[in-house]
Every structure is written in structure tokens, then in C-alpha cells.
Amino acid sequence: MEPFQNTNQPDWDWWSRLWPTPGATLRALGIDRGDALAEVGCGNGYFALPAARVVDPATVHAVDLDRTLLAELDELAALHHVENLETSHADAREMADVLPETVDVVLNANTFHGVDDVAAFVTSAHDALGPDGEFVVVNWHDTPREETRIHGAARGPPTDLRLSPAETERVVTGAAAFDPVETVELPPYHYAVRFEKEPGA
Q1: What's the pLDDT tens digit per position in 32-83?
Q2: What's the pTM?
Q3: Structure confidence by residue, pLDDT tens digits, 79-95
Q4: Closest Cα to residue 106, out of 49, 171, 40?
Q5: CA-CA distance, 38 to 18, in Å (whole number)?
Q6: How far apart are alpha carbons 133 and 112 in whole angstroms?
Q7: Coil, strand, or helix at residue 182?
């Protein structure tokens, strides 16, 4: 799998305009102390680093295809003395095979719109989860791109790649045995859908 289309690592300056308190955002998504978590498409750690603080002493597995961004994340984790974060260079479709253990939460933030093989990706997330595990997808609302402006410039994926919450639910539940649990609004431009692994799946 190539890197997800129309995704990149935003400048942390404008990223922080959307997510000024990423740890609080993660808690609003039901992520809590003791939750082993895998973030797929972690970049250089804008969510992975605070996630490690939130779930400590559990482990955050930060997965990405970009070795340069993973190296930056390793450096940041060392700088901030974050010891419960492990980086993995891996194809998203092979996540379940790469992780050393099943996890409680799989998080995909701001890159779901770019997944070119959704069924394989969602199936991999499903297989990476333990019983009662949750798959959390943070997505841009299906607002026209010219209306999602940060620092005066249009940001985010092209309009035609954006999915509504209902479309995200349809795509995920059509690919693997997940039940939608909750849709969380994340103003100004995002939402998250929490999915629970179906019992016995």
C-alpha cells in the first residue's frame, strides 16, 4: 500500500488551531488510562505522543509508512521521556501482523479519506483488536474544502474525498464486523465515529 492519498503531515502550528488540546480530544473519544492503543497513520506524533500520556501505563503503537516521520516521533518521544510508545514501519493492511499484541483501540485520525483499499484496512483494524475493542475514525466533515479554512487558507482533503458520518459508518460496517457506538462532533471541521468490535467476531 502506498501512503494514503491526499494526506500529509500538517505543520503543527496550524494543526494546533484545530486540536489545541489533543489529550482532551482523545479523552472525549473514550480513550482512557490503561487502553493499549494503535494509531495508524500517526505521522510524527501529534496524537500519538499525548495518547501515550493518556493511556499510560499501557502502550501506544504508532504505525506509519513514512520512516522519516517515525524517526522524528522517536526523537520527540525520547526528548519528552515518553517510554510507553513504540513505532512501527508498516503497511496499514498488515497492522494486525506487525503489532506484538492485540490492542483495545485502533485510532485513525484525518487520513481515512485517503485509504485506497478500505476493506483491507478496516479488516486489519478489526483483526488487531481484542474482544470489545474499538475502532475510532476521525474524519473531516463533508464540507466543501474552500469552507474549511485555517490561517486564511483552505485546508484538508479535496471535497470529493470527504465522507459524512453516515458514509463512514456504511463503509466501516460494510467491511468488517463493527457496530457504530457514537458519533462525536469535533468542531470546527471534524467528527469522529467510534465503532465497537462485534461480540465473538
Answers
A1: 999 999 999 999 999 999 999 999 999 999 999 899 999 999 999 999 999 9
A2: 0.93
A3: 999 999 999 999 888 88
A4: 40
A5: 22
A6: 19
A7: strand
